[in-house]
């Protein structure tokens, strides 16, 4: 079938909306009519080739839509089902079988090769050349796309598909790093570095978990103000003061939990230094391969801290996304406050607004 898709062409270049040919779903895929797709910082860094995903390709990995065709081997999905689409994983390696599919041994190939495992692409350009597909198992910046079925999460018939796509990556990443990995106790303290969509989702999750001191750190005053309105008990502008000392003062020695959503080496060090004794920190912000952070391991040793690096909130999307939807429905996880919708034709404006900090979580509505 013919479909319109936003094609990523190269570093820093605008996406171009083109008409492409979409092939038939493979036995393990479903064809989804996308209703909406979130825009994630990761789409921008892939377009800019921080990771060597072959371009041209259709990116997008926070899709939500309606199943229009079902591959011959797919179980549990029917035409008309509404789905939120998460990353692809193999389901067979030891990490998948241990309940950690976001650490699937085949995760990189399945999500970042822009090819199916058989080497094909779902999209072909008018001149017959292949256009990369299956980004995060989905390539959701397209009106129709073929999606790896086991990455999908079926949602209720009346679910707000124009809101739920970001649960498949950015929101799941921040919320999962907090709820699944750091697991703050009620009444505990947490510092979150970076108040983008991932950091704000982490903040909402920390509040839902009952953390009583939630310190948000950023360099953009308007974002810090927004964070205070949504649940931050304290904010620190790290351009104006050293966050580790500010946090030590606020908490009497350091936080119990901390999260770096920036991937900036200096911020990772600040995050580590803001932990109290036996604190637990985590990194979710993405950096270019080869990036090193300046950390004083001499002082760190005696503080007994632990550190995790977290992919996609270490979630099992089929279990975790419905929990986030349930929390959202009862008002305990108001992530809709982070979103703003854009028409498909305005996709480059959505990326520009995300980069400038104007919009926390753009959602393209088809
Ligand atoms: P974003 O760009 O919306 O937010 C980043 C925030 O960090 C911004 O508010 C920015 O002002 C702040 N920041 C930048 N430099 C800073 C500094 N020096 N000190 C303090 N704050 C600073 O991005 P996002 O969508 O929230 O994503 C955050 C990161 O998470 C990105 O790197 C993204 O690629 C990554 N990510 C990782 C995963 C994963 O599985 N680990 C999944 C999704 C996204
Ligand atoms: Zn993402």
UniProtKB/TrEMBL annotation:
Q: Which PROSITE patterns match?
A: ADH_ZINC
Recorded GO molecular functions are: oxidoreductase activity; zinc ion binding
Q: Which CDD domains match?
A: benzyl_alcohol_DH
Recorded superkingdom: Bacteria
Q: Which cofactor does it need?
A: Zn(2+)
Keyword annotations of the record: Metal-binding, Oxidoreductase, Zinc
Q: One short Pfam family name for this protein? A: ADH_zinc_N
Signal peptide: which range, if any? none
Tell me where in this chain the Enoyl reductase (ER) domain is found: 12-365
SMART domains from the entry? Answer: PKS_ER
| Family, as annotated | Belongs to the zinc-containing alcohol dehydrogenase family.
Protein name, as recorded:
Alcohol dehydrogenase catalytic domain-containing protein
- Species the sequence originates in: Brevibacterium rongguiense
């Amino acid at each position: 079938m013919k479909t319109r898709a936003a094609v990523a062409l190269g570093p820093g270049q605008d996406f171009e909306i083109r008409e492409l040919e979409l092939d038939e779903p493979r036995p393990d895929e479903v064809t989804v009519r996308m209703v909406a797709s979130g825009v994630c910082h990761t789409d921008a860094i892939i377009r800019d080739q921080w990771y060597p995903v072959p371009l041209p390709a259709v990116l997008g990995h926070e899709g939500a839509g309606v199943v229009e065709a079902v591959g011959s081997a797919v179980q549990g999905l029917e035409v008309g089902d509404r789905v939120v689409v998460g990353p692809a994983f193999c389901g067979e390696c030891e990490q998948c079988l241990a309940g950690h599919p976001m650490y699937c041994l085949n995760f990189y190939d399945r999500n970042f090769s822009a090819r199916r495992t058989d080497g094909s692409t779902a999209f072909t350009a008018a001149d017959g050349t292949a256009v990369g597909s299956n980004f995060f198992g989905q390539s959701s910046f397209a009106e129709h796309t073929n999606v790896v079925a086991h990455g999908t999460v079926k949602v209720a018939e009346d679910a707000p598909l124009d809101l739920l796509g970001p649960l498949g990556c950015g929101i799941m990443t921040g919320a999962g790093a907090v709820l699944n990995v750091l697991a703050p106790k009620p009444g505990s303290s947490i510092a979150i570095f970076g108040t983008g969509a991932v950091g704000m989702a982490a903040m909402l999750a920390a509040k839902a978990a009952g953390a009583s001191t939630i310190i948000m750190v950023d360099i953009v005053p308007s974002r810090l103000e927004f964070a205070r309105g949504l649940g931050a008990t304290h904010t620190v502008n790290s351009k104006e003061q050293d966050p580790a000392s500010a946090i030590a003062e606020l908490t009497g020695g350091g936080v119990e939990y901390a999260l770096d959503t920036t991937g900036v080496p200096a911020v990772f060090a600040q995050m580590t230094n803001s932990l109290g004794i036996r604190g637990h920190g985590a990194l979710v912000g993405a950096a270019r391969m080869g990036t090193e952070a300046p950390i004083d391991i001499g002082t760190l040793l005696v503080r007994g801290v632990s550190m995790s690096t977290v992919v996609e909130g270490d979630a099992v999307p089929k279990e975790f996304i419905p929990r986030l939807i349930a929390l959202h429905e009862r008002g305990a996880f108001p992530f809709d406050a982070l979103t703003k919708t854009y028409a498909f034709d305005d996709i480059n404006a959505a990326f520009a607004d995300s980069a400038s900090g104007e919009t926390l979580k753009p959602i393209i509505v088809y």
